[in-house]
Amino acid sequence: MTSPLAGIRVVELASFVAAPSGGALLVDMGAEVIKVEVPWGEIYRHSNARMMGVDHDFPLSAPFQMSNHGKRSIALDLALPEAQAALRKVVDRADVLLTNMLPGRLARYGLDPERLLSERPELIIARLSGYGADGPEADTPAFDYTAYWARSGLMDRLHDEGTPPAFQRPGIGDHTAGLALALGIVAALRTRDSEGRGQIIDVALQNIGYYVAGNDVSWAAATGHTAPRHDRSKPRNPLWNQYQCKDGRWLFLVMIESDRYWAPFTKALGQPDLEKDERYADGFGRYHGSAELTAMLDAIFAERTLAEWGKRLDAHRLIWAPVLEYAEAAQDPTAAARNVFPTVDHPTVGQFRTVAPPLTMSDHPMPGNAPAPALGADTEAVLAESDVDADTIALLIAAAS
């Protein structure tokens, strides 16, 4: 079967994570994605394991490889007018321009969307910004840490009472934004195929934060009130809570329909008398007796190891999960059976495992295991394909060396 986006060319003028991760998904669906980088390579390309606090000598940026697999790379010094003119020629041959460049910089390079669409109405332009590319903070620089995490309210909610606001791990909002960008681009391509017109797609990290936290944010928008934080010492539902085991490991119970699971849960605990305790006979009673019941469950779970509890909970088909570290999660046997961590054959460092795309298609393989391109590996070829003359190509390659 033909790849869904076979024949589609995307120019990616972007750095870091959000827009490039969207570009990687387009690669997975068969598009040709040309990544435009500064001559020295973006900083994300050069981060290594030890720089990120990982005790290993892996020489590449694993996240860069994940978000840029299968692309082509051209290196241009856009301070040069010749490079700006060459880039416009490359964009002229593209179906999609994918960028996280601030509007002011795009305009300086002659790539403002209005100008591009006036010259090529069929072009699709996908823009990633912190706070909206056409809003009052269009030119405000942002990362997902600021726009997605802090200003959306997530940072304030996802920590325990009495502790500082939580620090987000890298790329969480960015990868979600990449999904939104890819979805918008695919929809715009379908519209273009039927109507012949391109359009502008905008994804703002702030909006992604609101959407991801939509259950809480929708309540805040509708009522003007903020939902309370989870308090594990007195949860609204003690069967929807985290507990520490004898070996110091944690498990997470997620039995939202607590009445349905109360009887088998007490059997898994080996506490038949608890099922008959009138104080906790229904969800209402367990809510009002939450602090006492949770303290009781803390003591019970402290009697056995995580592995022992896992067998008991699974025997009664209860909904729970172990709280895993990333290194453990990357060895999850269920994930391995679904090839969630495919192997990359890299031309310089050999084999390593990476993270697969977040979806599969029955008639189109999406392994996500191609290596990211070497910096500027395709500069000469892409510029030649875009009818940039040989002398200018030589000049730009020399300037980027």
Percent range for β-strand residues: 5-15%
Main CATH class of the largest domain: Alpha Beta
Report the CATH architecture of the largest domain: 3-Layer(aba) Sandwich
The Rg value, from CA coordinates, equals 25 Å
Principal-axis shape equals elongated
Number of helices: 20
How many structural units, i.e. domains?
A: 2
Query: Which percent bin holds the helix content?
Result: 40-55%
Main beta-sheet strand count, sense and barrel state: 6 strands, parallel
CATH topology of the largest domain: Rossmann fold
Short description:
The chain contains 20 helices and 11 strands.
Walk me through the structure.
With 401 residues, this protein is α/β, with parallel strands linked by helices. The protein folds into two domains: 9-214 and 338-399, Crotonobetainyl-coa:carnitine coa-transferase, domain 1 (Rossmann fold, 3-Layer(aba) Sandwich), CATH 3.40.50; 240-325, 2-Layer Sandwich (formyl-coa transferase, domain 3), CATH 3.30.1540. It is built from 20 helices and eleven strands. The strands form three sheets. Strands 3-2-1-4-5-6 form a six-stranded parallel β-sheet, with helices on both faces. A hairpin with a 5-residue loop joins β7 (240-244) and β8 (250-254). α1 crosses α9. The two termini are 41 Å apart.
